[in-house]
Design goal:
The protein is built from seven helices and six strands, in the order βααβαβαβαββαα. The protein has 164 residues and is α/β, with parallel strands linked by helices. The chain has a single domain, classed as MoaB/Mog-like domain (Molybdenum Cofactor Biosythetic Enzyme, Chain A). A six-stranded mixed beta sheet has the order 2-1-3-6-5-4, sandwiched between helices. Helix 3 crosses helix 4. It is globular. The chain starts with 7 loop residues before the first strand and ends in a 5-residue tail after the last helix.
């Protein structure tokens, strides 16, 4: 759904135990917001929460079902630690997975660092919302979003049947 200003509504969710306690600055969330502002997106909500599976699921559901945003971008929680829960939370709330998006992000990231293959981020649809997991590092978040941002409006337009 486009907003009155002709932009898609987006929410950014940062998952970070340290960040949510004020012990670490959210650089990746700020980078995502800045990149979205250069494209047809209006940021209607931003939040930083702990890496808690149930809390992440609750927020994703709220953003999709209550705020009815078109796009949710998460950052953080896609690594290998025991507290990295973002892909599991996303998988629990989506109705359809969109594997091409994280594949494209990892493919582009692979060109710069082989470590891109270690990201467990996923993407999927819940109702009329597209959810995409980005890495938690500033560089990883930037490069991943830059790899896909130009195609996101087309994907969101497909919901409305405008371009298919």
């Amino acid at each position: 759904m486009e907003t009155r200003s002709g932009r898609f509504k987006a929410a950014v969710l940062t998952t970070s135990d340290k960040g949510s306690k004020g012990e670490r600055e959210d650089k990746s969330g700020k980078i995502i917001i800045d990149l979205l502002k250069t494209a047809p997106f209006e940021i209607v909500h931003y939040e930083m929460i702990p890496d808690d599976l149930e809390t992440i699921k609750e927020r994703l559901i709220k953003f999709c079902d209550e705020l009815k945003v078109d796009l949710v971008l998460t950052t953080g929680g896609t690594g290998f630690s025991g507290r990295d829960n973002t892909p599991e939370a996303t998988r629990a709330v989506i109705e359809k997975e969109v594997p091409g998006i994280p594949e494209a992000m990892r493919f582009e990231g692979w060109k710069k660092t082989k470590r891109a293959m270690l990201s467990r981020g996923i993407a999927g649809l819940r109702g009329q919302t597209l959810i995409i997991n980005l890495p938690g590092s500033s560089r990883g978040a930037r490069e991943s979003l830059e790899a896909i941002i130009d195609e996101l409006p087309h994907g969101l337009e497909m919901f409305e049947g405008r371009e298919h």
